[in-house]
Amino acid sequence: MIEPAAPPPPPPRASLSPILPRVAWRVATVAEVIQETSTTRTLVLDVPGWPGHRAGQHVDIRLTADDGYQAERSYSIASPPEGSHLALTIEYLEDGEVSSYLCGELRVGDRFELRGPIGGYFVWDVNAGAPLLLVAGGSGIVPLMAMLRHRAAALPDLAARRALPARLLYSSRKWDHIINRDELAMLVSNDPALEVTYTITREPPPGWTGFRRRIDRMMLAEFAWPPAERPHIFVCGPTPLVERVATAFVELGHDPALVKTERFGPTGAGA
Amino acid sequence: MQSVTAMDSMRLDGNAAAGLLSEVFARDATAARATCMQCGATDSVGALHLYAHEMGAVLRCPSCEAVVLRLARTKTDVWLDATGARCLVIRLS
To answer: Are strands B33-36 and A111-118 parallel, antiparallel or unpaired?
Structure first.
């Protein structure tokens, strides 16, 4: 019998490593719950090993029932990269099996699975070097809030903010539905280069003199910088609003490549 | 069959498929540029029109609505059909 040849030496360790998912599932623990409006709340989370994120990115959340049934949804990150905790602002949707749990039963100390940060398209940072133009509908404010918080945190001095001005147009059905209204007022009071404009489409408060209609092209022309300024435009909200607004920006002469959109829908971010 | 209006309201951005795409690609695929096989338009994957459901995702060209990418997930596999993408350009850094 011939001795079998010695087995070849094992290949270098690196080639044996399994290919790991680029974005791994992690366990998030609820550190704080902040009721924002009657239908939205912010979950402040402890996520060990969180690698950091960019303003505008989102996470996927996975809930697993006792019988093994799993549901996954995407939610925008509300906190800026500079924040000490990851925060998600979530709107309760009547038929949302995930949002009803996150906005209802979930308590401080509860845990769930999350992966992220996700998405390299709908992102902004202060190195962009152009005016920041934001349009939100309802809970579409969330990723835009991360951008405004990032801008405030990353640019402490006024000269730097003036060099990178920002405008937000925020459409809401009712005054009380505006998420982060107090914080937005505070940001504006500390920042001459930030303008926030509201349009209240259903029930404006008594004495309201601002816009009270759905966002249209004329409103955008009044609110936005001219296309020659080449603002970076981010539009987030329900699909019909996003499509109307994005189309109008392009009709007004803005470069389509500078108009980035994120639609909130039933199976994606927001449900 | 769903009405056009119902389909329109289900339309999202390719950006929302980033989690599913991260199970396939080593780098963020939403910032990648995809060229539509049918009309030749090139867009960021994050800007494609996404029709998502529990099984997976269909990403369509925002210019001509042709299917560019399809992803489906089963218990054991992820299926990627890129027939509709003439080219996918993924930045390395």
So the answer is: unpaired
